[in-house]
Write a structure and sequence with these properties.
The protein is mainly β. It has one domain: AttH-like fold (Beta Barrel), CATH 2.40.370. The protein contains no helices and eleven strands. The protein has an eight-stranded antiparallel β-barrel with strand order 1-2-3-4-7-8-10-11.
Length: about 200
């Protein structure tokens, strides 16, 4: 059973376009602790999978990095109450008002996140330390959703406050920060000239 009742908070009909994507983003920074988060969960029924990126900034150049993937079916409405990919879970407690983001599982504890710009096979030995990350984030919207587009292809954003705790490598940190969430749905072809295009990449 799903608690989502806001139409655009829930999944949308995908149609026939194989490049369809429905994505959730949650981002924040706490200026006091310097903890920040970039979280994205995306569903691509045309490819048959959903993936989740959860990156936590721990002050300075240190980053905890995680990634997961799961197989999915064509009917995305089946996942309205099941927004879980790998060890990351999203839950809508009150549409356009309150969400929770939680992670419990392995992470790469990276002392200098700039190394992620280097191809994996070229990274030096010991570029990260395997760690366990536990994180709970309560997301409270500060503004009404601002829609850049609605209908079959849509996108909205909201300002937010994020509070919670994380534990990694024997450290525990409480945070209280501010940021932005957004949701988008529609065809997304990253090699095309625009997000809604299925054509060849533009030149120039």
């Amino acid at each position: 059973m799903t608690t989502v009742t806001g139409t655009d908070e829930a999944m949308h009909p995908t149609g026939e376009d194989r490049a369809w994507s429905e994505s959730y983003y949650f981002n924040f920074v706490d200026p006091k602790t310097r903890v920040g988060m970039f979280t994205r969960m995306g569903f691509r029924p045309g490819n048959g999978w959903a993936d989740a990126l959860h990156a936590v900034y721990l002050g300075g150049s240190r980053v905890a990095f995680t990634y997961g993937r799961r197989d999915i079916g064509q009917d995305l409405s089946a996942y309205d109450g099941d927004l879980k990919v790998g060890n990351l879970a999203l839950a809508c407690e009150d549409p356009f008002r309150r969400w929770t983001v939680s992670y419990e599982g392995p992470a790469q504890d990276i002392p200098d996140g700039a190394i992620l710009m280097t191809r994996a096979k070229l990274r030096p030995e010991g570029w990260h330390t395997p760690a366990h990350l536990s994180m709970q984030v309560d997301i409270d919207a500060l503004t009404e959703p601002h829609f850049a587009a609605k209908g079959a292809h849509g996108h909205f954003e909201q300002s937010l406050r994020a509070t919670g705790r994380l534990a990694i490598g024997g450290e525990e940190i409480a945070f209280d920060g501010f940021g932005v969430r957004d949701k988008s749905w529609g065809p997304r072809n990253w090699s095309g000239s625009s997000s809604g295009s299925s054509g060849a990449a533009s030149t120039g």
